[in-house]
Design a protein that fits this description.
CATH class of the largest domain: Alpha Beta
Largest sheet: 5 strands, parallel
Strand order of the largest sheet: 3-6-9-1-10
Shape: globular
CATH topology of the largest domain: Rossmann fold
CATH architecture of the largest domain: 3-Layer(aba) Sandwich
CATH superfamily of the largest domain: P-loop containing nucleotide triphosphate hydrolases
Distance between the termini: 39 Å
Number of domains: 2
Number of strands: 13
Order of helices and strands: HHEHEEHEEEHHEEEHEHEHHHEHHEHH
Helix content: 40-55%
Protein backbone atom coordinates (compact mmCIF):
# COMPACT_ATOMS: atom_id res chain seq x y z
CA UNK A 1 0.00 0.00 0.00
CA UNK A 2 2.81 2.36 0.94
CA UNK A 3 4.72 1.50 -2.27
CA UNK A 4 1.63 2.26 -4.38
CA UNK A 5 1.19 5.59 -2.60
CA UNK A 6 4.86 6.45 -3.14
CA UNK A 7 4.60 5.62 -6.84
CA UNK A 8 1.49 7.75 -7.18
CA UNK A 9 3.21 10.62 -5.36
CA UNK A 10 6.25 10.32 -7.64
CA UNK A 11 4.09 10.41 -10.76
CA UNK A 12 2.40 13.57 -9.51
CA UNK A 13 5.72 15.24 -8.73
CA UNK A 14 7.08 14.34 -12.16
CA UNK A 15 4.07 16.03 -13.78
CA UNK A 16 4.54 19.16 -11.66
CA UNK A 17 8.27 19.14 -12.56
CA UNK A 18 7.38 19.00 -16.25
CA UNK A 19 4.94 21.89 -15.87
CA UNK A 20 7.39 24.11 -13.99
CA UNK A 21 10.23 23.26 -16.37
CA UNK A 22 8.08 24.09 -19.40
CA UNK A 23 7.11 27.42 -17.86
CA UNK A 24 10.77 28.33 -17.28
CA UNK A 25 11.72 27.38 -20.84
CA UNK A 26 8.75 29.32 -22.24
CA UNK A 27 9.84 32.50 -20.47
CA UNK A 28 13.46 32.12 -21.56
CA UNK A 29 12.44 31.61 -25.18
CA UNK A 30 10.41 34.81 -25.07
CA UNK A 31 13.79 36.56 -25.16
CA UNK A 32 16.22 34.06 -26.67
CA UNK A 33 15.78 33.15 -30.34
CA UNK A 34 16.88 29.60 -31.15
CA UNK A 35 19.43 27.85 -28.91
CA UNK A 36 16.77 25.36 -27.72
CA UNK A 37 19.33 22.66 -26.93
CA UNK A 38 21.58 25.21 -25.23
CA UNK A 39 18.74 26.35 -22.96
CA UNK A 40 17.88 22.75 -22.07
CA UNK A 41 21.48 21.89 -21.20
CA UNK A 42 21.93 25.00 -19.05
CA UNK A 43 18.79 24.09 -17.11
CA UNK A 44 20.07 20.52 -16.78
CA UNK A 45 23.10 21.90 -14.93
CA UNK A 46 21.01 24.13 -12.69
CA UNK A 47 18.49 21.42 -11.77
CA UNK A 48 21.21 18.78 -11.48
CA UNK A 49 23.08 20.92 -8.96
CA UNK A 50 26.09 21.48 -11.21
CA UNK A 51 27.72 24.32 -13.14
CA UNK A 52 27.72 25.07 -16.86
CA UNK A 53 30.40 26.28 -19.26
CA UNK A 54 29.19 28.03 -22.41
CA UNK A 55 31.55 28.37 -25.34
CA UNK A 56 31.02 30.43 -28.46
CA UNK A 57 32.35 33.40 -30.36
CA UNK A 58 31.27 36.86 -29.16
CA UNK A 59 27.81 38.06 -30.09
CA UNK A 60 25.89 34.75 -29.99
CA UNK A 61 23.85 35.67 -26.93
CA UNK A 62 25.72 33.84 -24.14
CA UNK A 63 25.45 36.72 -21.69
CA UNK A 64 21.86 37.48 -22.70
CA UNK A 65 20.87 33.88 -22.00
CA UNK A 66 22.27 34.03 -18.48
CA UNK A 67 20.74 37.42 -17.77
CA UNK A 68 17.38 36.15 -18.98
CA UNK A 69 17.65 33.11 -16.74
CA UNK A 70 18.33 35.42 -13.81
CA UNK A 71 15.15 37.38 -14.61
CA UNK A 72 13.01 34.26 -15.03
CA UNK A 73 14.18 32.67 -11.79
CA UNK A 74 13.65 34.52 -8.53
CA UNK A 75 17.29 34.13 -7.53
CA UNK A 76 19.96 36.60 -6.52
CA UNK A 77 22.13 37.30 -9.54
CA UNK A 78 25.60 38.75 -10.04
CA UNK A 79 27.92 39.16 -13.00
CA UNK A 80 31.70 38.96 -12.92
CA UNK A 81 33.49 40.31 -15.98
CA UNK A 82 36.79 38.44 -16.16
CA UNK A 83 39.71 40.54 -17.39
CA UNK A 84 43.50 40.05 -17.28
CA UNK A 85 43.83 42.44 -14.31
CA UNK A 86 41.05 40.84 -12.21
CA UNK A 87 42.32 39.65 -8.81
CA UNK A 88 40.98 36.73 -6.72
CA UNK A 89 39.81 39.11 -3.97
CA UNK A 90 37.69 40.91 -6.57
CA UNK A 91 35.68 37.69 -6.83
CA UNK A 92 35.58 36.26 -3.31
CA UNK A 93 35.61 39.47 -1.27
CA UNK A 94 38.02 40.72 1.36
CA UNK A 95 38.30 41.98 4.93
CA UNK A 96 38.06 45.75 5.28
CA UNK A 97 38.61 48.03 8.27
CA UNK A 98 35.43 49.61 9.66
CA UNK A 99 34.90 51.90 12.63
CA UNK A 100 31.89 51.91 14.95
CA UNK A 101 30.26 54.95 16.59
CA UNK A 102 32.90 54.99 19.37
CA UNK A 103 35.72 55.00 16.85
CA UNK A 104 36.77 51.42 17.55
CA UNK A 105 38.17 49.83 14.43
CA UNK A 106 37.72 46.22 13.45
CA UNK A 107 37.92 43.98 10.40
CA UNK A 108 34.69 43.15 8.62
CA UNK A 109 34.29 40.78 5.69
CA UNK A 110 32.90 42.42 2.57
CA UNK A 111 31.34 39.84 0.28
CA UNK A 112 32.42 39.65 -3.33
CA UNK A 113 30.14 39.05 -6.32
CA UNK A 114 30.51 35.28 -5.93
CA UNK A 115 27.93 35.50 -3.11
CA UNK A 116 24.80 35.02 -5.21
CA UNK A 117 22.53 32.16 -6.27
CA UNK A 118 23.24 32.65 -9.96
CA UNK A 119 26.72 33.83 -10.90
CA UNK A 120 27.63 34.77 -14.45
CA UNK A 121 31.38 34.37 -14.93
CA UNK A 122 31.65 36.26 -18.21
CA UNK A 123 34.61 35.43 -20.48
CA UNK A 124 36.25 33.41 -17.72
CA UNK A 125 39.20 32.45 -19.92
CA UNK A 126 40.31 36.08 -20.29
CA UNK A 127 41.53 36.12 -16.68
CA UNK A 128 44.88 34.75 -15.57
CA UNK A 129 45.08 31.18 -14.22
CA UNK A 130 45.56 32.51 -10.67
CA UNK A 131 42.24 34.33 -10.81
CA UNK A 132 40.50 31.44 -12.59
CA UNK A 133 41.48 29.16 -9.71
CA UNK A 134 39.74 31.45 -7.23
CA UNK A 135 36.38 30.03 -8.25
CA UNK A 136 37.47 26.39 -7.75
CA UNK A 137 36.58 26.16 -4.07
CA UNK A 138 33.33 28.01 -4.60
CA UNK A 139 32.24 25.68 -7.38
CA UNK A 140 33.20 22.48 -5.61
CA UNK A 141 32.67 23.19 -1.92
CA UNK A 142 30.17 26.07 -2.18
CA UNK A 143 32.27 27.96 0.34
CA UNK A 144 34.80 30.80 0.25
CA UNK A 145 37.85 30.94 2.54
CA UNK A 146 39.29 34.37 3.37
CA UNK A 147 41.91 34.90 6.12
CA UNK A 148 41.40 31.39 7.49
CA UNK A 149 37.65 31.96 7.81
CA UNK A 150 35.20 29.91 5.75
CA UNK A 151 32.05 31.61 4.48
CA UNK A 152 29.04 29.67 3.20
CA UNK A 153 27.65 30.60 -0.20
CA UNK A 154 23.87 30.93 -0.71
CA UNK A 155 21.88 27.93 -1.87
CA UNK A 156 21.17 27.08 -4.59
CA UNK A 157 24.51 28.13 -6.03
CA UNK A 158 25.02 27.99 -9.78
CA UNK A 159 27.99 29.24 -11.79
CA UNK A 160 27.40 29.76 -15.48
CA UNK A 161 30.67 30.64 -17.12
CA UNK A 162 31.12 31.84 -20.68
CA UNK A 163 34.33 31.54 -22.63
CA UNK A 164 35.55 32.49 -26.05
CA UNK A 165 37.20 29.83 -28.24
CA UNK A 166 40.84 29.33 -27.28
CA UNK A 167 42.00 30.38 -30.75
CA UNK A 168 40.93 33.97 -30.05
CA UNK A 169 43.43 36.58 -28.89
CA UNK A 170 43.81 37.26 -25.17
CA UNK A 171 42.50 33.95 -23.85
CA UNK A 172 44.02 31.61 -21.27
CA UNK A 173 43.07 27.91 -21.31
CA UNK A 174 41.20 26.81 -18.19
CA UNK A 175 43.09 24.31 -16.00
CA UNK A 176 41.90 20.71 -16.41
CA UNK A 177 40.95 20.60 -12.72
CA UNK A 178 38.61 23.55 -13.18
CA UNK A 179 37.14 22.24 -16.43
CA UNK A 180 36.29 18.99 -14.65
CA UNK A 181 34.14 20.89 -12.17
CA UNK A 182 31.73 22.02 -14.86
CA UNK A 183 28.91 19.54 -15.18
CA UNK A 184 28.34 20.25 -18.89
CA UNK A 185 30.15 22.16 -21.59
CA UNK A 186 27.57 23.78 -23.86
CA UNK A 187 28.52 24.98 -27.33
CA UNK A 188 26.72 27.83 -29.08
CA UNK A 189 26.68 27.69 -32.85
CA UNK A 190 25.96 30.54 -35.23
CA UNK A 191 22.24 31.04 -35.99
CA UNK A 192 20.67 29.97 -39.26
CA UNK A 193 18.77 32.32 -41.56
CA UNK A 194 15.41 32.12 -39.78
CA UNK A 195 16.99 32.49 -36.33
CA UNK A 196 19.12 35.44 -37.39
CA UNK A 197 16.06 37.17 -38.86
CA UNK A 198 14.21 36.61 -35.60
CA UNK A 199 17.11 38.00 -33.58
CA UNK A 200 17.21 41.14 -35.69
CA UNK A 201 13.47 41.70 -35.36
CA UNK A 202 13.43 41.07 -31.62
CA UNK A 203 16.45 43.15 -30.68
CA UNK A 204 16.09 46.23 -32.88
CA UNK A 205 12.46 47.11 -32.20
CA UNK A 206 11.05 49.64 -29.77
CA UNK A 207 9.61 47.06 -27.37
CA UNK A 208 11.66 44.73 -25.20
CA UNK A 209 10.40 41.17 -24.63
CA UNK A 210 8.63 40.88 -21.29
CA UNK A 211 9.25 37.91 -19.02
CA UNK A 212 7.80 36.90 -15.69
CA UNK A 213 9.33 34.92 -12.83
CA UNK A 214 8.65 31.21 -13.19
CA UNK A 215 10.31 29.74 -10.07
CA UNK A 216 12.02 30.82 -6.85
CA UNK A 217 14.93 29.44 -4.84
CA UNK A 218 12.71 27.12 -2.80
CA UNK A 219 11.12 25.59 -5.88
CA UNK A 220 14.50 25.14 -7.60
CA UNK A 221 15.73 23.33 -4.47
CA UNK A 222 12.67 21.04 -4.57
CA UNK A 223 13.25 20.27 -8.23
CA UNK A 224 16.90 19.47 -7.49
CA UNK A 225 15.82 17.06 -4.76
CA UNK A 226 13.40 15.31 -7.14
CA UNK A 227 16.21 14.85 -9.67
CA UNK A 228 18.15 12.89 -7.06
CA UNK A 229 15.18 10.55 -6.58
CA UNK A 230 15.02 9.46 -10.22
CA UNK A 231 15.86 5.76 -10.49
CA UNK A 232 18.81 4.41 -12.45
CA UNK A 233 18.86 0.66 -13.08
CA UNK A 234 22.08 -1.22 -12.41
CA UNK A 235 22.58 -2.15 -16.08
CA UNK A 236 22.17 1.51 -17.06
CA UNK A 237 24.76 2.57 -14.47
CA UNK A 238 27.10 -0.10 -15.81
CA UNK A 239 26.62 1.22 -19.35
CA UNK A 240 27.59 4.73 -18.20
CA UNK A 241 30.69 3.35 -16.50
CA UNK A 242 31.72 1.51 -19.69
CA UNK A 243 31.25 4.69 -21.73
CA UNK A 244 33.54 6.64 -19.41
CA UNK A 245 36.16 3.88 -19.30
CA UNK A 246 36.13 3.77 -23.10
CA UNK A 247 37.42 7.37 -23.15
CA UNK A 248 40.73 6.18 -21.66
CA UNK A 249 43.24 5.28 -24.37
CA UNK A 250 44.55 2.35 -22.34
CA UNK A 251 41.11 0.89 -21.66
CA UNK A 252 40.01 -2.44 -23.12
CA UNK A 253 36.94 -0.89 -24.79
CA UNK A 254 38.62 2.26 -26.12
CA UNK A 255 37.97 2.83 -29.81
CA UNK A 256 40.53 3.68 -32.50
CA UNK A 257 40.05 7.45 -32.13
CA UNK A 258 40.43 7.36 -28.35
CA UNK A 259 43.53 5.19 -28.53
CA UNK A 260 45.18 7.42 -31.10
CA UNK A 261 44.17 10.94 -30.11
CA UNK A 262 43.30 10.96 -26.37
CA UNK A 263 45.96 11.53 -23.73
CA UNK A 264 43.71 11.34 -20.66
CA UNK A 265 40.10 10.18 -20.49
CA UNK A 266 37.17 11.38 -18.44
CA UNK A 267 37.24 11.28 -14.64
CA UNK A 268 34.53 9.79 -12.38
CA UNK A 269 32.97 13.26 -12.36
CA UNK A 270 32.15 12.64 -16.01
CA UNK A 271 30.04 9.62 -15.04
CA UNK A 272 28.34 11.62 -12.31
CA UNK A 273 27.56 14.41 -14.77
CA UNK A 274 26.01 11.94 -17.23
CA UNK A 275 23.81 10.45 -14.52
CA UNK A 276 22.54 13.78 -13.19
CA UNK A 277 21.93 15.28 -16.63
CA UNK A 278 20.20 12.09 -17.77
CA UNK A 279 17.93 12.23 -14.71
CA UNK A 280 16.82 15.77 -15.60
CA UNK A 281 16.31 14.68 -19.22
CA UNK A 282 14.15 11.78 -18.04
CA UNK A 283 11.99 14.02 -15.83
CA UNK A 284 11.46 16.42 -18.72
CA UNK A 285 10.21 13.44 -20.74
CA UNK A 286 7.77 12.50 -17.96
CA UNK A 287 9.71 9.51 -16.63
CA UNK A 288 11.02 8.73 -13.16
CA UNK A 289 13.74 6.43 -14.47
CA UNK A 290 16.75 6.92 -16.73
CA UNK A 291 16.70 5.30 -20.17
CA UNK A 292 19.54 4.70 -22.62
CA UNK A 293 18.15 7.50 -24.81
CA UNK A 294 18.68 9.96 -21.95
CA UNK A 295 22.33 8.98 -21.72
CA UNK A 296 22.92 9.41 -25.45
CA UNK A 297 21.29 12.84 -25.31
CA UNK A 298 23.67 14.20 -22.67
CA UNK A 299 26.90 12.23 -23.14
CA UNK A 300 28.64 14.69 -25.48
CA UNK A 301 28.00 17.75 -23.30
CA UNK A 302 29.11 15.86 -20.18
CA UNK A 303 32.34 14.45 -21.62
CA UNK A 304 33.63 16.81 -24.35
CA UNK A 305 35.61 19.02 -21.95
CA UNK A 306 36.92 16.07 -19.94
CA UNK A 307 38.89 14.44 -22.75
CA UNK A 308 42.45 15.72 -22.93
CA UNK A 309 43.79 15.31 -26.45
CA UNK A 310 47.31 14.18 -27.22
CA UNK A 311 49.71 16.38 -29.18
CA UNK A 312 48.75 14.48 -32.32
CA UNK A 313 45.06 15.07 -31.69
CA UNK A 314 45.61 18.79 -31.15
CA UNK A 315 47.80 19.09 -34.23
CA UNK A 316 45.24 17.39 -36.44
CA UNK A 317 42.34 19.39 -35.03
CA UNK A 318 40.44 16.35 -33.79
CA UNK A 319 37.11 17.15 -32.13
CA UNK A 320 36.28 15.42 -28.86
CA UNK A 321 32.64 15.17 -29.98
CA UNK A 322 33.73 12.83 -32.80
CA UNK A 323 35.54 10.60 -30.30
CA UNK A 324 32.48 10.50 -28.04
CA UNK A 325 30.21 9.70 -30.99
CA UNK A 326 32.43 6.75 -31.92
CA UNK A 327 32.26 5.48 -28.34
CA UNK A 328 28.45 5.75 -28.30
CA UNK A 329 28.27 3.80 -31.56
CA UNK A 330 30.64 1.03 -30.51
CA UNK A 331 29.88 0.42 -26.82
CA UNK A 332 26.89 -1.93 -26.52
CA UNK A 333 24.07 -1.06 -24.16
CA UNK A 334 24.30 -4.53 -22.61
CA UNK A 335 27.55 -6.30 -21.80
CA UNK A 336 28.16 -9.11 -24.26
CA UNK A 337 29.03 -12.48 -22.79
Amino acid sequence: MDETANNTDMVGQVQIFQSDYSRIVEQVRAVIVGHEEVTEQVLMCLLGGGHALLEGVPGLGKTLLVRTLGRVLELSFSRIQFTPDLMPADITGTNIVVADAEGTKRFEFQQGPIFANLVLADEINRATPKTQSAVLEAMQEQTVSVSRTTHELPRPFFVLATQNPLEMEGTYPLPEAQLDRFMLKVRLDSPDLDELTGIIDRTTGAEEPDVSEAADAQRIAQMQQLVRRVAVASHVTEYIARLVLATHPGGEQAGPLAKRYVRYGASPRGAQAIVLAAKVHALCAGRANVAFSDIRAVAAAALRHRLILSFEGQAEGVKTDDIIEEILETIPQAETV
